[in-house]
Amino acid sequence: MKKLMNRVLVALVGMVFVLASCGKYDGGPGLTVLTKKARLTGTWDATSIEYANGNVITIDPNTVTLTFEKDGTYTTNYIGFAANGTWEFNADKTAITSTINGSSNTTDPIYRLTNKDLWFKDADGDIAKYTKK
User: Fold this and answer.
1) Measured between alpha carbons, how far is 117 from 89 in angstroms, rounded to an integer?
2) CA–CA dist 52, 29 (Å, integer)
3) Measured distance CA(3)–CA(15) in Å, rounded
4) CA distance 119 to 48
5) Cα 119 to Cα 110: distance, rounded to the nearest angstrom
């Protein structure tokens, strides 16, 4: 019985390491119990932009906010200007495609998505960071 318990324990530990290395996003997390939609839903404050060349711009709180709803709608606010639209994950959930007022589509690759951090990384390697309110 003791050998069986040891084997089960070793198998469970091995599964944790395998699952932890299977994260969807380069910036993490490796393992989470929340769905991607559950992590994304809510209001996010832009905090900074880290450029690939090493420059960092800090953004004042409440200057730029994004609000993602479970029903696929979102609102973006930029210094008092608000726009409404829809959002959805791409097929493999590595990016968010958003439409503003039914006409302007953008696709933002996700670099990190946790319950508190949302980072987008563009083709130039610049990372826009948001923190959940």
Assistant:
1) 17
2) 21
3) 18
4) 10
5) 6
Prediction pTM value:
0.77
What's the per-residue H, E or C state across 25-61?
CCCCCCCCCCCHHHHHCEEEEEEEEECCCCCEEECCC
Query: Which secondary-structure segment (H or E) carries 95?
Result: strand 95-100
pLDDT of residue 8: 45
56-58 vs 42-50, strand pairing mode: antiparallel
Q: What would the CATH number be for the domain defined by 34-132?
A: 2.40.128.280
Element holding 68 (H helix, E strand) = strand 64-68
Structure tokens at 11: 């198998």
> CA-CA distance, 117 to 130, in Å (whole number)?
6
- pLDDT, tens digit, 9 for 90 and up, residues 74-108: 999 998 899 999 999 999 999 999 998 778 788 99
Would you say 46 and 65 are in contact if contact means Cβ atoms under 8 Å apart? yes
